[in-house]
């Protein structure tokens, strides 16, 4: 069985999911269903694509899902910059989350 939990990319994004959920609790109420929701959905999708890809039988399928996960990671990186620039997240928190997604992206790219 191919265990996604053994992959560093999954471990990194799994930690980021929890951190991002905690961080987005402070986003203003009017943005809960826009930026906050989008960030949460996108970061969870990264982990989900890794899990789904790891479950595939072929290496090309696995790589295809990693490519989608990588693209979603780039999306999260952008969304975090928006959250910081409109001051929905403190700059230091946004930077810390950004460092996590950059590291995750590097590991994903290496797997691809």
Q: How would you sum up this structure, described in words?
A:
This protein has helices at 8-23, 32-55, 59-85, 91-111. It starts with 7 loop residues before the first helix and ends with a helix. It has 112 residues and is mainly α. The mean pLDDT is 94.
In angstroms, what is the radius of gyration?
14 Å
Order of helices and strands: HHHH
Rounded mean pLDDT score: 94
Tell me the β content: under 5%
Number of strands: 0
| Spans where pLDDT lies below 50 across 5 or more residues | none
Principal-axis shape equals: elongated
Straight-line distance between termini: 20 Å
Class inferred from helices and paired strands = mainly alpha
Number of helices: 4
Say what oligomer this is: single chain
Q: Percent of residues in helical segments?
A: over 70%
Task: Please give the largest β-sheet.
Answer: none
Furnish the topology, listing elements before pairings.
Elements: H1 8-23, H2 32-55, H3 59-85, H4 91-111
Helix pairs in contact: 1-2, 1-4, 2-3, 3-4
Task: Give a short summary of the structure.
This protein has about 110 residues and is an all-alpha fold. It contains four helices and no strands.
Describe the structure using short key phrases.
112 residues; mainly alpha; 4 helices; 79% helix; 0% strand
